[in-house]
Amino acid sequence: MSKACFGIDVGGTTVKMGLVTQDGELLEKQEFVSAHDVGEMFDNIAGHMKEVLGHFPDVECVGAGVGVPGPVIEDRLVRGCANLGWGDVDVAGELGRRTGLPIKAANDANLAAMGEMWQGAGRGCKDLVLLTVGTGLGGGLISGGRMITGFNGGGGEVGHIPSSFHPDWQCGCGKYGCLEATASASGIIRAAREYPQFQERERLTARDVFDAAKDGDPDAQKVVTEAGHAVGHCAAILACVLNPEIILIGGGVSAAGKLLMDPIQETFKLEAFAPNARVPFARAQLGNDAGTFGGAALFFCE
Ligand SMILES: [Zn+2]
Known about the structure:
The protein is 38% helix and 25% strand. The model has no long low-confidence stretch (mean pLDDT 95). It has 302 residues and is of the alpha/beta class. It has ten helices and 13 strands. The longest helix has 25 residues. Bound molecules: zinc ion. Zinc ion binds next to loops.
């Protein structure tokens, strides 16, 4: 009988989950719309787990690792998820009661870093940084094979590192000048809007700004380069703390490739402490499945 574990990524709009074997094989994936009510959410997740397990009678399920978009303490309790409308929720208790399985919870961005370490671009590394540049900017820090979450779950919040690029721009967290405010897709759009050629566009995406940069628009190039510098600067700070073996860049914005990666690495090389300056950068590999693998990694990478 082979062992498997669920990885479950609970988001504000959808829940993505999968059953992963101890060898890292993703047996089945499911995705469904998030329920507003906490009880209904966990009823739905438990129902889907039961359904999936029904397809694999020869598999021994050892538990479920659940990612939630908020700070998690003691592998079980989340203290507020703004985009789920949750207050304090005992994730492990809610799902454990419904399934009879061992449950571990973690912050979703940290979990993605665990997934990349186990089965993605960080395979074989025990010390790594993941920076996920999307609508927001998240990520996770792994040290000695373990997620850094800190005293009350606020560790590894790489997007909210103070950045000097736009100290007067407010971040989604309420604070001003976070890395996320400058270098996320939202930050890139905001910076581009300062130029007349982008002000006129009713709908503007970060992709539009990257396309303009590729086509030679110097203002767009300036915006993209600045976002890259901001990420590279924070990566240099994180490297001083962690001395990582590899730094991974993921998220939708990372699809811009060299345009973003070059200024990130240029700033990093310039600012990193000498023993860290040669740390390689790579694109994250698991995309939307990172949380699923990360959830299983909570059980299989212990
Ligand atoms: Zn912030």
